[in-house]
Write a structure and sequence with these properties.
Elements (H helix, E strand, L loop, with lengths): L2 H7 L4 H20 L5 E8 L7 H11 L2 E8 L3 H10 L6 E4 L5 H8 L21 H7 L8 E4 L5 E6 H7 L7 H13 L11 E3 L9 H8 L6 E3 L5 E3 L4 H16 L11 H9 L3 E7 L2 H9 L8 E4 L12 E2 L5 E6 L8 H14 L2 H8 L7 E3 L5 E3 L2 H7 L1 H4 L15 H13 L3 E2 L9 H22 L5 H30 L1
Parallel strand pairs: 1-2, 1-3, 6-9, 11-15
Antiparallel strand pairs: 3-12, 4-12, 5-9, 5-10, 7-8, 13-14
Helix pairs in contact: 9-10, 10-18, 11-12, 18-19
């Protein structure tokens, strides 16, 4: 069965995916026992509507001397499908696993279903460079059951209307105090000069993590979800002074009308469309959203001028920090023992994964082929020359790059290039979450339900529906209903991992 057929079959349904994966596993095992034909099967996550055509896959095969057979799992159904494939042991030589906190995945890894690769990485030049922090964060109970996907430590920052700052004679804000003054001016001083009271300073949404709140809390000194002391005692972020200061900060913005009044219920799509329409001047989120807003504003605000901020401190904390999502780990490439029968086959596959880290292959999976998908200008920047072809042949493979960091960015769009540079710079100031590699049974079973107690209380405090006494009551409820147990379980797991 050729890989084009596999690509088409990979997203047609659960039964088809499992059958395909099972066939791929049999073939992979057979090739190993017969001395190997360079073939590798890969159960991979698909983030686009359709799998890639063969063009880039053929190039990868040539450069790595392999034959690839993919079984594609749509991202929207990955949890169900990966869980089912694990339960039926219908896997492939390589399995892309991004849900590292999924209990079925973690149990399968701890059971010995996948190879522990920690003792092999240093034998390969590219895998050797994976940092200890990343290895630790991708581990489960101190063991590394796959090659970590190395993501940017933090892509978070602020997008701001540079033209509005210029219109009002304001400097780029450097502190949270400066930012609040800018938010006030963007709300009250007609920054777009249309003579109407139709703008707001900060445009926020119903998300305490990926919008403004968590970033502000970090500026005020809150940990990234959890803090741990020398004795191994864990403290959640919402029991710290920095978290409370962030609530007070947003409450002041809300009380004065410098943030949109509907922020607690606004969806991300509505938020971004509103910003692109010129109704607000400050946006917290991915630094890469600067380019997205430029594209969204075409034909609406062609003269919109944006800038980016990734260096901001609070007056009290006065330390440059930014929180990291997943500690720079986007999952792992795991190798099931049912498919990868012996150490010789494991080493062959690890060599392939090592090769995928080469800059030439990164460029191939990011930009495509020069002259076909992109062209290089006089400054060495890459410009996509056929967007539709790039989307068909290159874009579906971008999420399969096992490493996204450490390469020279080559984007001709100035704000996208600046975001790439700032994202790389963020790595030096990233605050990690010490609980990422740890396991708490209570957190796995009740974490989402318990977090809702804190999320609701945080919004209620900012909106003025409860006071600090009410917020502390909610924290105590979190403790009583399972939070205390989570702390204890993390402490035990932390000590065991040292």
């Amino acid at each position: 069965m050729n890989k084009r057929m596999i690509s088409r079959l990979g997203s047609v349904g659960l039964a088809g995916m499992l059958l395909l994966a099972g066939c791929s596993g049999e073939k992979g095992s057979s090739s190993s026992s017969e001395g190997g034909d360079g073939k590798i099967t890969w159960m991979n996550i698909l983030h686009t509507a359709s799998p890639p055509t063969d063009t880039i896959v053929d190039e990868i095969e040539k450069k790595t001397d392999t034959k690839l057979e993919f079984s594609w799992v749509p991202d929207a159904s990955k949890e169900e499908r990966i869980n089912t494939a694990i339960a039926s042991d219908s896997l492939a030589d390589i399995v892309t696993i991004t849900m590292m906190d999924n209990s079925s995945v973690r149990n399968a890894m701890k059971s010995g279903m996948f190879w522990n690769v920690e003792d092999y990485l240093d034998d390969y030049p590219n895998l050797k460079d994976i940092s200890e922090d990343v290895r630790k964060s991708a581990s489960i109970e101190g063991k590394l059951y796959g090659v970590p996907f190395q993501k940017d430590l933090s892509r978070i920052g602020i997008v701001i209307r540079k033209d509005w700052l210029d219109n009002l004679g304001l400097d780029m804000p450097k502190t949270t105090e400066d930012l609040m003054k800018v938010a006030q001016a963007f709300t009250e001083d007609d920054p777009d000069g249309n003579g109407k009271d139709d703008t707001v300073g900060l445009l926020d949404r119903s998300d305490l993590v990926y919008s403004s709140f968590k970033t502000l809390a970090t500026y005020f000194g809150a940990p990234n979800k959890w803090d741990v002391d020398e004795q191994g005692n864990f403290t959640p972020e919402f029991e710290t002074e920095g978290y409370v200061k962030a609530m007070d900060y947003l409450k002041k913005m809300y009380d004065n009308g410098w943030v949109n009044k509907d922020f607690a219920v606004m969806a991300k799509t509505d938020q971004q469309q509103t910003f692109a329409q010129g109704k607000a001047g400050i946006y917290f989120g991915g630094l890469f959203d600067g380019q997205n807003f430029q594209n969204m504003a075409k034909g609406i605000q062609d003269d919109m001028e944006l800038d980016l901020i990734n260096d901001m401190t609070s007056t009290d904390y006065n330390k440059r920090v930014i929180w990291s999502e997943g500690n720079g780990v986007g999952g792992v490439l795991a190798f099931p023992r049912s498919e990868v029968k012996d150490e010789a086959e494991l080493k062959k596959i690890l060599q392939f994964v090592n090769d995928l880290h080469d800059e030439e292959l990164y460029s191939l999976m990011t930009y495509g082929i020069e002259g076909t998908h992109y062209e290089e200008d006089a400054d060495g920047l890459y410009k996509i020359i056929d967007q539709n072809l790039w989307q068909q042949e290159v874009q579906p493979l971008a999420a399969s790059r096992p490493r996204e960091t450490g390469y020279e960015s080559k984007d001709p769009n100035p704000i996208k290039q600046k975001s790439n540079e700032m994202i790389a710079e963020n790595a030096d100031y990233a605050v990690l979450n010490p609980a990422v590699p740890l396991e708490s049974g209570t957190y796995s079973s009740q974490g989402t339900e318990l977090q809702k107690i804190i999320t609701d209380a945080t919004y209620q405090y900012i909106l003025g529906e409860i006071d600090m006494k009410g917020f502390k009551k909610a924290v105590q409820s979190w403790e009583d209903q399972g939070g205390k147990t989570i702390k204890e379980e993390y402490k035990e797991a932390y000590k065991a991992s040292q």
